[in-house]
Amino acid sequence: MQLKIDKLTIYSDENLTTRAHLSDRRALLGPLNFSFSDQEPVTVLGHTGAGKSLLAQALMGTLAVNLTVTGTLTINGRIFDLADRKKLQALWGKTLVLLPQEPWNALNPLKKAASQIIEVGRFVLNQDKQTASKQSIQRLATLSLMDCQNKYPHQLSGGMAQRLTYAIISCANTPVMILDEPSKGLDKTAVEQLFKQIKHTSQQAALLTITHDLALCQRLGGKLLIIQQGRQLAFAQTKQLFTCPRLPYLEQLIAATKPPSIHKKFGSVNEVLLEMKDIQYSISGKTILNNVNLTLKCAQITLIQGISGVGKSTLGDLICGLKRPSRGHRSVDNQVGKLEIQKIYQEPTAVFAPGIPLKLLFKDVCKLHQIKFSSVLNGMEKLKLDVSLLQRDKSSLSGGELQRFALLRVFLLKPKIIVADEVTSRLDECHSRTILELLINYCYEQNAALVIISHQTEQIVTLADQIISLKPVLNKR
Fold first, then answer.
1. Which one, 104, 111, 363, 456, has the greatest CB density within 10 A?
2. pLDDT of 266 over the 70 cut
3. What does the mean pLDDT of the chain come to?
4. Looking at domain 2-255, what is its CATH homologous superfamily?
């Protein structure tokens, strides 16, 4: 299977009346020219907001209606106009499949995990029910998801939802696969499992992988397409690009993987903001957390780590008071108000209203909490967010841009406790480092407690004052 992308260019349709004006406008992405095949995969690397996910959407024919694409996609000699969405969408499930960056947006909320895989077998591969069910079990077992087969998407962790979505799309056995951030939100064991599956797939299908994960880039091999500020910076063999002399952009990403150099500060040891004792949390007869003890103090950084699905996000919800423990005691200091405990969620798309420009959403926040709008603009500058992004709604932003807007909204409320759930999972190494520095500096400057939930612990572990390592709870059958 051979694919070639020629002159792929994406423009915004804002204030655009006719197609003839395209040549006069600055492109959001492109022009891109590259090729990939079942013999040589391609990995796409670029900073947050560079346009990587736009590339995937253009190839699938799912770009937002306010965006225009030009260029062609050639599959085994057959040429497709990228502007012809209907012809591209006719390839879904037969030729093309996409692992989206936000798996919860792709999963059916009303169907259990196993049944969503079975549907692919029944309606895409025309299998009988028994064969489709057998294949579903095999796919779940391969990705350590057997305990999830009868669960709905809302009952899954982010990492579980990511693996389930991969199981669904890989089940179709299409000759072309596009993976958008496949390792996002996964622990090392799950990443290794997924990598083996992807590597096996790359030997049978043409593979285009979008990622921030530098280690995954190198392990996948093949060719590397680097996009910087919407422009094609390089397209060459991955090994060649990672060998000295490297591009300055790659050098910058590699340097950013080192822990931030932040001078540690300490609050008073007596200033306890929140305490949890002997916490147990159970749901549907299954215990998720058991005998958890935790104390949060001023100017203290806490790291919560553990494998995917172990209950890290659940513990974050318990800290915030969003869930009630089945047993145990949670106490909050009187100086901490209800709005002064804030959580930055793992899935930023779920926390912003659809179809409403970010500017209006932030104006509502400022009006409700009597905050000057200039604080929004100052915060955007610190978070390296362009002011023009305020005119867009959440569907027109990258996952990394949305995550930074979610962080900005939390900073505006000046909380005393912040729970940051996989806050850097959608960010490239440079933005990830910047976000960690901002969070940690806020913690010290505001004498606040910071709780970081993460699988990407290398940058955090040296700065954490305490580390909570969660282990799976053994439930009696």
1. 456
2. no
3. 89
4. P-loop containing nucleotide triphosphate hydrolases (3.40.50.300)
